[in-house]
């Protein structure tokens, strides 16, 4: 599709595209999807199933979900949630061939 989506959220020293921004673009283009986690060779991956013109497409393997760290002062549940959200967001961009402004 070759579409660029703006980065609309601020992290710790970086900007990123929030999932809601991706959802808005998908809705405007009559596209939808669902995602699930699949274990492949001992790693968990986000799988995205695009639905285009009402037709369910083949699942597309996206990002591997990295595990939460149990070291340090941070909350492992929050770290795991952040890892899943990150994997979902970038898997979604990949599944639909989308890029973000200043994509890195």
What does this structure look like?
This protein is an alpha+beta fold and 104 residues long. Helices cover 29% and strands 34% of the residues. It is globular, with a radius of gyration of 15 Å.
Question: What can be said about this structure in brief?
Answer:
The protein has 104 residues and is α+β, with helices and mostly antiparallel strands.
Reconstruct the topology from this structure.
Blueprint: E1 4-5, E2 9-10, E3 15-16, H1 19-28, E4 31-40, E5 43-52, E6 55-56, E7 60-64, H2 76-95, E8 99-100
Parallel strand pairs: 1-8
Antiparallel strand pairs: 2-3, 4-5, 5-6, 5-7
The largest sheet, given as strand count, sense and whether it forms a barrel, is: 4 strands, antiparallel
Shape: globular
SSE string? EEEHEEEEHE
What is the overall pLDDT average? 83
Q: Keyphrases for this structure?
A:
104 residues, alpha+beta, two-stranded parallel ribbon, 29% helix, 34% strand, globular
